[in-house]
Amino acid sequence: MSIPSLCSPVVERLEPYVPGEQPRIAGLVKLNTNENPYPPSPRAIAAVEAAAREGLQLYPDPQSLALREALAAAHGLQTDQVFVGNGSDEVLAHAFFAFFQHAGERLLMPDITYSFYRVYCGLWGIGAELQPLDAGLAVDVGALAARAAQGPCAGIVLANPNAPTGMGLPLAQIERLLAACPQRVVLVDEAYVDFGGESAVGLIARHPNLLVVHTLSKSRSLAGLRVGAAFGAPPLIDALTRVKDSFNSYPLDRLAQAGACAAVQDVAYFDATRHAVMHNRDGLARALQELGFEVLPSQANFLFARHPGRDGAQLAALLRERAVLVRHFARPERIAPYLRISVGTPAQCDALVRAVAAILASNR
Ligand code: PMP
Asked: What is the pTM of this model?
């Protein structure tokens, strides 16, 4: 009996997401998965350690109440406007299930964006309708709004700032989308917003169809803890909770809840590290421009850059030989010349720039 016949037929049709590599190579300059180069808040680490010492024999709070209260306080929301999950990937998966399955209607999204969105569409059987980015690789809000206003759609999903371009949209543009799609959810994934973007959280009070998704993996340096959140009107949060409670009562363990709570409350550390990342980003962008790169304006903790006349895949491979990892996307072809470079510490950024300069000089 072949293995596939043991599986539900849908398994063969899935096209899983491929995460960036996590190799264990000593001395590697790892700028490929948009992690924060700085460690988490010392208060978060102390909270995880304390949580490890007490109560691991007991299940965690299924509602993650303390964490939801901390997030609500941080964002000027009520606790019933906050949902949390095991990384924002899980929050997104639940949101796609809860809001975008409408027979015969397709979910609108930019053609170049976080590639997991299409994976969730495949998982839940949601049709996707892709709207091309404009010539400058910005999200074409006019086209998305016009399409939404024109006829039924299952909703709109976009990342702001977008990935992998790093380019952000002003809030007025988000409001345009909300107005064009009042009958369906507009999901704004703000994974990178703390590095200079404009958050739509303040629009929640006026827009019952807005869901904003955040992660603690980037600006809170907690990619290893797996904590994400969604903010929206209470009926949307209730829907997400129904889905979560039909899937896993305890997606956030005791360590994650304790560490995330402390990280959210350590505002001084959060501000210091995100500003350091933005400062390093601007220096790195200038250094790459001096080497001849075209660098898209980034409001995220990564740069999307290409060198005219150099092949993106080849540059990434040559950097890898020099123990510098960046991310390259071969598809769609339009972005194949680009490298996505996570912003590191000044030392990591210098190492990248030196490696790039050496490659360009060697003319390989
Ligand atoms: N959204 C976007 C746009 C991302 O780039 C990522 C990180 N790959 C995520 C969501 C998921 O982040 P996490 O699951 O670590 O919270």
From this structure: 0.97
